[in-house]
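Holo model, P1T. Inputs:
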Amino acid sequence: MSKKITKKATTKTTAKKSTHDFATRVIHVGGEPDKETGAIMPPIYQTSTYVQESPGVHKGYEYTRSHNPTRTRLQECLASLEQAKHCLVTASGLSAEMLIMHLLPAGSNIICGDDVYGGTYRLFTTVFHKMHNFKFIDTTDAKVVEKTVKEFKPALIWLETPTNPLLKITDIVAVTAIAKKAKALTVVDNTFMSPYFQNPIVLGADIALHSMTKYLNGHSDVVGGCIMMNDDLMHKQLFTLQNSIGPCHSPFDSWLVLRGLKTLAIRMEAHQKNAMVVAQYLEKHPKVERVVYPGLKSHPQHAIAKKQMLGYGGMITFFLKGDIKKSNKFLSTVKLFALAESLGGVESLIEHPAIMTHASIPKPIREKLGITDNLIRLSVGIENVDDLLDDLEMGFSAIK
Ligand code: P1T
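Output:
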């Protein structure tokens, strides 16, 4: 995509008000030199507790489950990137989702997109189904959303856009408008786009959520999650829940994400550039049945992608011509594309959703959605793209 990306912050953040461009905020918000020593890199406050002058008299920090200065810096930066007022950083993406589930009164109705990360589906259908009522629908069709909202009266609509793994795209502006009319909250899992390519809160969502494990950190060495929002009361409630339940992020891991974040803008550009080349190569390949990439004109929601996203990201899924045997052969032949779960790191990864990331979704549902045995998901890294194409070609050559 040749669109010039200049993203000025339009909303104030509690943490740091900055009108700088995204590429500047990602480096400087939360990255101020240490006041005491001038160290240009933020210290890692590797401490569990803080000394108090007298009981209850302290410098704002009591215990690291509640607050930690390294984590505070990361939260400031992430809030700024999503153009949100608040951010809470959590132990994992799933624990961020868990906190949001606890925010709602027991017995709430929740509409969730029918194609979501397998772990999200498992969390909702095997843990929170005891507390709330879930309906999984195709949120890419605003008419279906409108009808279901009327009948089901949800307290919350949960969107993943683009979805994992089928990269379906929901019109955030349209769905949040329907939700607002019905006084329902909207959450957007923005993991696949990162705040560089999509800002759900600016588009109308109440909450943007990320698995920080992916593009935000970008180096496949940290697990974490984050929740961004504007509402003060919601922030207070989620903080209380996090402090009471305990899924906090370690100071060292927060520091690693702060470090990884600095290159988010250039990494996302590089991921996208490579992904577009790979998607076009796959689209022409005789051994490929179909390619799904939001940047391709053939993507069913390409027009919405163009409207609401500032880029198309680094994730591609494609259907091989063939069966599970051919998929396995391909997956075990490629080398630069490492066969592993997860995504969003600088290195390219490949995986088989039906056996790996989405195995927790019952087979009949998976197949109805289109998560079939010939579906392969790529997280395109930032290596030299010709090397990546050679690697894929080696995989295709091995299929007879
Ligand atoms: O792994 P964790 O940090 O807990 O994040 C969960 C999660 C939430 N949302 C989305 C869209 C995700 O993709 C994930 C994790 N996904 C993988 C591990 C994967 O390979 O798809």
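The chain has two domains: 8-261, 265-397. Confidence is low (pLDDT under 50) at residues 1-6, 8-16.
Archived with the compound record.
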